[in-house]
Amino acid sequence: MAKINIKRIYEPAGEKDGFRILIDRYWPRGLKKDPLPYHEWLTAIAPSNKLRKWFDHDPEKWNQFQLKYTLELAKNDAVDNLLTLIKKHKVITLLYAAHDEEHNHALVLQQFLNLLLK
Fold this sequence. Notes:
The chain has helices spanning 49-55, 62-74, 78-88, 105-117, and strands at residues 3-8, 19-22, 40-41, 91-96.
């Protein structure tokens, strides 16, 4: 089984990152596309615009956000694409731009994928 890490895109790439996948719908603010080290950008795996705007990184909405995003993921065809990439690599790092490291979609996605891969 692949190891799935998460990391802010603003942190430097590391040797232990493995295959790096940007999972945000929009390009991270303040970063140039070149020479940013990532292997794949899966915009479709990110929360829908409606959910993203509703959540607005409000920690009080965190529990509801987790449930709603998990339901979106269960119906999202992009999950199959991501699983294909995961099966090809021993280590995956999901890259996200949110400032809040305790309340972001990468945490929900990591947990969702780990449950699928058990």
